[in-house]
Amino acid sequence: MLNKLGLAKAVLVACLAGIVMPAHAEDSSWDAVVAAAKKEGKVVVYNMTLGAPYFKTVMKSFETKYGIPVESLDLRASELAERIRTEQAADRYLGDVEMIPSTMIEEQLEKGDFIQKLPPIPNIANLSAQFKATEFSVPAFNQPMGILINTRMVKDGDIPESWDDLNNPKWKGKILSDDMRPLGSGNAMFSILEKVMGKEYNEKLAEQKPSFSRDMRNDARRVARGEYPIYIPQIFAFTSDLKGLPVKVIIPKEGAPTAEMDLAVLKNAPHPNAARLFINHFLSVESQTVYANAWMLPVVGAAADLANPDAQPFVHAKLLGPAKLADRPSMMARAKKLYP
């Protein structure tokens, strides 16, 4: 028979075994996921990065690490959601992962079963406290937006420090904007600023007669070329690759409108293990630091701390919050009324 000391040792060994063995089993099962992903041979990612170099960097790092090619379908959010809807309505399941605004995932869940429940993904544990995964999706990054100016055309004393400064008469007819009427960054900004600044704000801005466009990456370059002195809303990260050009992104004192981008696995994904592996890779500190250095707000806190000095003001910017799905119909209708 065991004495009391021997019994205590036996209990301790059993407890330690209970702690260690599940971790080992989890590691073993993840190795199986990696092996299965490699057998699947590729992963198809539907995204709305509009050719962003930081997404390409993460994509290439995934391919280098695992030897699994990534096929990328890159569209605007509204086009991407419609592509998924039409493909699945036709029983054509071509995509594995989508990266899309959280409001659109919410809409997908309301209108049909376009995505499936997430399997266990180890790096979800890396999420900062303010970001939460759901059973269907996990935050990928936050996309804050500010004001872009041409530094040769906007004098130091005229730099807009507030969103309200855009309503200065001197800027009438001189503001380029993402179209505020359809679904997209322009309408997200419109909705968020109406809530924060009041409805009179958007009414005054409409009187400024902004010019609309739907080519966000090129629009920043139009400002750099001097076609317009101001562009709104400027996604922070779309400015990080314009270094050396006469532009500057301004974070207004009220804060930055933002859109949360989420990752989800599409229904009947043809490469489910590769999809799972890609999401896990995206949530690594390494991948998130790439986004932080591109002036995005990462969802992994350690990545914000590792961001380079140029990125620090942007990864720690005050945020005004995202647009709400419930407000979308009324805000799109209001924008169309103000901008017929």
Reconstruct the topology from this structure.
Blueprint: H1 4-40, E1 43-47, H2 53-66, E2 70-74, H3 77-89, E3 97-101, H4 102-111, E4 115-116, E5 138-150, E6 175-178, H5 185-197, H6 199-207, E7 211-213, H7 216-224, E8 230-235, E9 247-250, E10 256-266, H8 272-282, H9 285-293, E11 297-298, H10 301-306, H11 312-315, E12 319-321, H12 328-338
Parallel strand pairs: 1-2, 1-3, 6-7, 6-8, 10-12
Antiparallel strand pairs: 3-10, 4-10, 5-8, 5-9, 5-10, 5-11
Helix pairs in contact: 1-8, 5-6, 5-12
Write down the overall mean pLDDT: 90
Annotation field: number of helices: 12
| Low-pLDDT sequence parts | 1-27
Q: Give the CA-CA distance, first to last residue.
A: 89 Å
Extended strand count: 12
Helix content: 40-55%
Helix/strand order, N-terminal first: HEHEHEHEEEHHEHEEEHHEHHEH
Radius of gyration: 23 Å
Q: Structural class of the helices, strands and pairings?
A: alpha/beta
Please state the oligomeric state of the protein chains shown: single chain
Strand content: 15-25%
Broad shape:
globular
**What about the largest sheet?**
12 strands, mixed
Concise overview:
The chain has 340 residues and is α/β, with parallel strands linked by helices. The chain contains twelve helices and twelve strands.
